[in-house]
Design brief:
This protein is an alpha/beta fold. The chain has two domains: 200 residues, Quinone Oxidoreductase, Chain A, domain 1, CATH 3.90.180; 126 residues, 3-Layer(aba) Sandwich (Rossmann fold), CATH 3.40.50. 29% of the residues lie in helices and 26% in strands. The protein contains eleven helices and 18 strands. Helix 11 links the parallel strand 17 and strand 18. The relative contact order is 0.16.
Length: 344
């Protein structure tokens, strides 16, 4: 079968290759892939940015892709019978370490991310532990399935790590897919206003943010602090930093009201300098949010019927696996909102 694989730990070195189909083991589910998504992590693997990929230590060739979904082909038992459309949680934890015992497998001592450390889903078939596949709620459009991994990242941040309360004013720094999904969930959770910032190159994404009910701000043309203070004079109750740009950390602190919270989601490629004095004087909480836990996926599935239609609006392009490099270039250039890959 065909698979998009990283061949060597260097920039580029990615190709569509032939690989053997996986052999399903007891307790696993064989899934025929129907679609996969692309995110900034995939671009970092393609470009081989050590600041991001250094955490994975994969063997090569590595089948890439951690956002993917498909249809069950083989399984044990009745939970996910053949023919079931599923999204796949690509995070495989050891189940035995301190953090797994605390119910936080995203911090697992031996965390294995499919598409990062072990083979992922930009291929035709995958075999994964049965508890890593999630059937969609009844009546949900199957097209949303490949978007559920990034939605789970946003769910962990907005509903678990730094939860929104009804009436909150929320600011989201970064108009990429994770930022837009954070805005969607914040609005669904009862936020009074959600402001989303981006740059001039994000014009299409900012239009989408407006369509979804958020207040978009192009920081190349307007002052985001002034726009925020028009919504709430002393700043946002919560700021989510999703851009991964080091210089935005001070902006996040400046945008947050006294006693507020800053959720850090984006992964910075370089060092940043942050003055701690405003954090102390404003008694801010800075909270990291990494990936998701199994509880996150279950929570997300309860919310999904309310937000699925908005989530689907992120998809702007669909590209075949054989054109993966063009798709990665599109993501790097900020073309569209969400690009979905499909088997050729």
């Amino acid at each position: 079968m065909k698979a998009v694989a990283k061949l060597r730990p260097e920039p580029g070195a990615m190709a569509l290759i032939d690989v053997d189909p996986p052999q399903r083991r007891p307790g696993e589910v064989l899934v025929r892939i129907t679609a996969g998504g692309i995110c900034g992590t995939d671009v970092a693997i393609w470009k081989w940015h050590e600041a991001v990929v250094g955490q994975y230590a994969p063997r090569f060739p590595l089948i890439v892709g951690h956002e993917f979904a498909g249809t069950v082909v083989e399984s044990d038992g009745d939970r996910v019978p053949p023919g079931t459309v599923v999204a796949v949680n690509p995070q495989i934890a050891c189940g035995h370490c301190r953090y797994c015992g605390l119910g936080r497998p995203t911090l697992c001592d031996d965390r294995r991310l499919m598409g990062g450390r072990i083979d992922g889903g930009w291929t035709e078939l995958v075999s994964v532990p049965q508890w890593n596949v999630h059937p969609l709620p009844a009546g949900t459009d199957a097209a949303v399935a490949p978007l559920l991994e990034p939605l789970s990242v946003a769910t962990h941040a907005v509903l678990e790590r730094v939860p929104v309360r009804a009436g909150d004013v929320v600011a989201v720094i970064g108009a990429g897919p994770i930022g837009i999904l954070c805005a969607v969930l914040a609005l669904a959770a009862g936020a009074r206003q959600v402001l989303v910032t981006g740059v001039a190159a994000d014009a299409g994404r900012l239009r989408l943010a407006r369509e979804l009910g958020a207040v978009p701000v192009d920081i190349d043309a307007a002052d985001p602090l002034a726009a925020l203070r028009a919504l709430q004079a002393d700043g946002a109750d919560i700021v989510y930093e999703t851009s991964g740009v080091a210089s935005t950390l001070e902006q996040a602190v400046a945008m947050c009201r006294r006693g507020g919270s800053v959720g850090l989601i984006g992964l910075c490629h370089g060092a940043s300098t942050l003055r701690s004095t405003p954090i102390v004087l404003k008694e801010l909480a800075l909270i990291g949010s990494r990936g998701y836990n199994e509880t996150t996926w279950r929570l997300m599935m309860t919310v999904l019927p309310r937000v699925a239609a908005d989530v689907l609006k992120l998809v702007t392009h669909q590209v075949e696996f054989r054109d993966f490099e063009r798709a990665l270039q599109m993501v790097e250039r900020r073309e569209g909102s969400k690009i979905v890959l499909r088997p050729s």
